[in-house]
Amino acid sequence: MATRALERVSDSDTLEALLRERRSVRGFRPDPVPADLLERVMDMAQLAPSNCNVQPWTAHVVSGEAAERMRTVLHDAAKSGTKMTPDFPLTGAYPGHYRGRQIDAAKSLFAATNVARDDVPARTESFLRNFRFFDAPHAMFLFIPAWAGMREAADCGMYAQSFMLALTANGLASCAQGALSHHAEIVHRELGVGEDQKLLFGIAFGYEDAAHPANAARTVRDKDHVLHG
Question: 97: exposed, middle or buried (C-beta count within 10 Å: 0-12, 13-18, 19+)?
Fold first, then answer.
């Protein structure tokens, strides 16, 4: 029993370390993730929980030429002002302290990348980097069935968290991106995904470019939980 208790402490420490290490990386090296490692990470993510074990997510990963084409067409669409076609309505202005957190995150990124508040071209270019998935060699596009609702979207979020933690555990970096769902019509077309599936969001991933200034940005976490009893 004592040995098992020590193992539990070790497991807890390892999990906490992974949770603290995982963060949104916005600068990647071009090196692709080896196919066997990518398969292992995705197998690990598939262990995520879901309501009634329906596993309502479908993950499409682009690499190589497919990734280059996807980043090109998405970037061009965003830069030219092509009308956005998200499968799910985009969130409007965040209210209250949620808006404050959004602003703090932006300030941290712009400070790290030396983008002035009134430098509109630089801010625009910073935003457009989303659509090139920050030069990551891979991007995952996460879909849920057209019939799905909030419960299934939450399930998909648990899969994404499991995937990103598995990446971290294997020395890889990631960034969950709502922006990759803005031009869903293009993503559907490029991936050959029918209307029976709806694009929720994407994840850029690969090896972190530690020298990229964007990766010096850090955000903080508040304690938004209430204990009863």
Answer: exposed
